[in-house]
Amino acid sequence: MIYNIYKYESELPDNTIAIDGVVYSLDDWEHPGGNQIRLFGGNDVSVQYRMIHAFHGEDTRKVMPVVGKLLNYNKDYTFDSEFEKELKEEVKKIVLPHKMYATPGFKYRVLLYCSNYVILMYYYVIYGANFKLCTLLGIAEALIGLNVQHDANHGAISRKPFWNDILGYGADLIGGNKYLWLQQHWTHHAFTNDNIRDPDAKSMEPFLIFHNYNAESPNRKYITKYQYIYMIPLFSLYWLSSIFSSEIFSGLQFSVNEYSEINFKNSYIQSKIGISIILRLLYLYLKCFSQFYHYDTTTAMIYIIFSSFVSSLMLAIPFSLSHNFENVERFPSRIDWYKSQVETSCTYGGKYIGYLCGGLNYQIEHHLFPRMSSAWYPYIQETVMNVCKKHKIRYAYYPTFLENFKSTIKYVSSISDIKKST
């Protein structure tokens, strides 16, 4: 193979990735996690590699063909701290790395949530909607989004890439798109609450700000003064913003493409545009066009939009709590990556609410071990808390959803008030 020297990340071919300045080819070897690694083609993935492969040693990379060297890349996150080492060792005592995938109970819930979705969608399409059915279908879509597609697209349901790949398309069957979601979500995980690189930090601007900008910032608008009032109604438009987005035709997620340094303009993403459009048309037929057969235009639109409001709120509200609360870290760069994941996230409730929200109430545990099935988070929570306490790292925990929700509202209100901003 030809060995090349690359001065900048932008020069990397899309069949290569770089880790710690070493450029590896994505060709001529089989990645155990499947072809999804090609999502990152043409990028420095030093952070993403360690994030996704928390329990892998340096020897793991020996199977990857070395084809060059990258001279300039970001080194603002540090790894291998004493906190990280102890955390991993203690967690491994509870969950062995090769057993960190879905438990039998989680698989049962996946079957239950998928069956529930199929049955409700069948009645919705064949017999037409009503408000009760729309409510149940909206909840069913949210359960797919929070549980099934989320764990699948994290590669956390099975060691076999096939099952993660198939179930990951659940995103497309609730009005989203698997490949757009992967771009935004993995970038968010790598750079949580980094206002420059985390796409979630700016995804709702200029109408809603989550970052604590200073008083003179042009990102502050007059309207954001009232954002704590209209935040929830705005969340109800989540489904509509996804359905009417043109991103699916370019294959590029807007927030990532606009704000982040990660470049997803590669051949792998482009090759997925066709299947993405087909699945979007299928979903539009099931959720939207089918209702015009049963009802007049106005009635059909009312049912479609009502169901979309239910699923939007069920999805958006839990996600909004995770990284927006009182005393959250909003400037995490240039520190220990594992420490930043704890201090930019929070955990609330226990395992029972986790059954509904896919374990995403354990957001700290999820961000520390994103490849681990959410079914394991209740088992490792106490250990994570104890290790954080030992290393004097703040662990934000709320006993209930309501307490976390109140903290989020207080935070959003405080950053909307210029007098209280920093």
Number of strands: 7
Low-confidence stretches: none
CA-based shape: globular
Distance between the termini: 52 Å
Mean pLDDT: 91
How many helical elements?
19
Structural class: mainly alpha
Largest sheet: 5 strands, mixed
Tell me the series of helices and strands, N- to C-terminal. EEEEHEHHHHHHHHHHHHHHEHHHEH
**Strand content range:** 5-15%
- The Cα radius of gyration reads 21 Å
Helical amount: 40-55%
| Strand arrangement in the largest pleated sheet | 1-5-3-2-4
Description:
It is a single chain. With 422 residues, the chain is mainly α. It has 19 helices and 7 strands. The strands form 2 sheets. It has a 5-stranded mixed sheet. Strands 6-7 form a two-stranded parallel ribbon.
What's the quick description here?
It contains 19 helices and 7 strands. It has helices spanning 46-52, 82-92, 104-127, 131-153, 161-168, 178-190, 227-235, 238-243, 247-250, 254-259, 267-271, 273-289, 291-294, 297-321, 337-343, 351-357, 363-368, 377-390, 401-416, and strands spanning 4-6, 16-19, 22-25, 43-44, 66-70, 346-348, 396-398.
Give the secondary structure arrangement, pairings included.
Layout: E1 4-6, E2 16-19, E3 22-25, E4 43-44, H1 46-52, E5 66-70, H2 82-92, H3 104-127, H4 131-153, H5 161-168, H6 178-190, H7 227-235, H8 238-243, H9 247-250, H10 254-259, H11 267-271, H12 273-289, H13 291-294, H14 297-321, H15 337-343, E6 346-348, H16 351-357, H17 363-368, H18 377-390, E7 396-398, H19 401-416
Parallel strand pairs: 1-5, 2-4, 6-7
Antiparallel strand pairs: 2-3, 3-5
Helix pairs in contact: 2-18, 3-4, 4-5, 4-14
